[in-house]
Amino acid sequence: MAPPAPPADAVLWQEQVDLPVLPPPAADADRRVEVAVVGAGYAGIAAARVLAAAGKRVVVFEKGALGWGAHSRNGGMAIPELKAGPATLEKKYGPVGLRMHHEVNEAFDHLEALIADEGIDCDYERSGQLYLAHAERLVPYLQELAHEHADGFGEPVRFVPRDELSSEIGSTVWHGGVVFDRTGGLHPAKLHAGLVRLALASGAEIRDRTAVTELTDRGAGHDGGRFLLGTERGPVRADHVIVTTNAYADGLLPELARRVLPIGSFIVATEPLDPALAAEISPKRRMFVNTRNLLFYWRLSPDGRLVFGGRRSLQHATVAEAADYLTRSLHEVHPQLCDVPVTHRWGGNVAITLDRMPHVGQIRGAWYATGCNGSGVALNTWLGHRLGQVVLGEAPPPAFAELTHRPIPLHRLRRLYLPVVGQWFRYQDRS
Asked: Residue 123's CB: how many other CB atoms inside 10 A?
């Protein structure tokens, strides 16, 4: 018997979606717009839709092909989280902490309502999340986390002891878990395509393969637009600028790039599973995440595959190297899948911030939103929507704008020290 074919270096989600055809770009001339948006992911497209619907002339610039970025490479998990519970956030940040907790939940509600009200076909399902303890020493932490959400704030969150996990997951390697009912699964590229269609229908222009290379703030009240943007298709003048490049921040705003750490995250996907095997693996179709620093996240895809993501370290890795590690890890978690072929493997970058919190602010007059730290499906969509409202004067900036957004120390030397940090994380992640 011939050995199975190696998995393709291809993004499963991108293969399964047809993006709208964009109209041809305007001629290379000095153009005047009211709002320029840099980055055509969830946040940028959501902002453009709000602004265009209000009658503003808005153009979204994307340096790559439409649909190439993290919005079509992620795990498709809509999780309202901030890496800490509400009481912990309040203790650390005061009233702002509670407002941030409220906003991530508002973001989740916003996404669910948007999908339902606009009829976005993205295979959305309110699945719930199962957060799993990889070591027995973490069980008290999970018990306290569930108590913090459920008893302190009345949220639908509950602890599941180890001897009851079989009703939640077909795996015996975990020591307990927490179920968060307010979590959903979706097809991330279909969500993005739906948002693009809504933005275009509202009158927004989208220009992909058009990098913005320069941004000059000429001062408020300047004749002909406050900002001058240099693009690959000619200069553009704008009254407002919103930058939503996230993990792909570059030299356009070096001050922003120094505040974001792009960390590689990788995913493998199996062939579609037999329905009985899929039900054994995930009886309730939960979104699975574990407690490691170098965590795993996995789920059943809408077409019944097991999609398994994570990273082994913080140093550079090829997709092939990462996929080999993830496949071995997948088989350790779910040995039932050892004979099931892995058909796809891919990677992308996640935007990590120093304090592991999302951030919103202004740099040289331009608004930005960044740093969802791997939980941006709902939050980035809402942040873009909110920044559109901020530019229109319809809403105040979100609570995240009140945080100090500190630069990453020794940002240019990160490839030297990240492997050491990764080793420390692996030590902490020991069972």
From this structure: 17
Provide the 8-state DSSP code for 125.
B
Residue 213 has a CB neighbour count (10 Å cut-off) of 13
Q: 381-419 burial by CB neighbour count: b if 16+ within 10 A, else e?
A: bbbbbbbbbbbbeeeebbbbbebebeebeeeeebeeebe
- CA-wise closest residue to 262 among 384, 352, 143, 127: 352
What the block records as the tokens of 190 is 């279909």
In whole angstroms, how far apart are CA 65 and each of 19, 40, 44, 249?
11, 9, 14, 16
Question: pLDDT tens across 125-149, in order?
Answer: 999 999 999 999 999 999 999 999 9
Q: Which residues contact 283 (CB under 8 A, 6 or more apart)?
A: 167, 168, 169, 170
The answer to whether residues 338 and 329 touch, using CB atoms and an 8 Å cutoff, is: no
Query: By C-alpha distance, which of 172, 76, 175 is closest to 124?
Result: 76
Count the residues in the chain.
431
- Kindly indicate the confidence band of residue 1, based on its pLDDT and cuts at 50, 70 and 90: very low
Instruction: Classify residue 362 as left (phi > 0), alpha (psi -120 to 50) or beta.
Output: beta
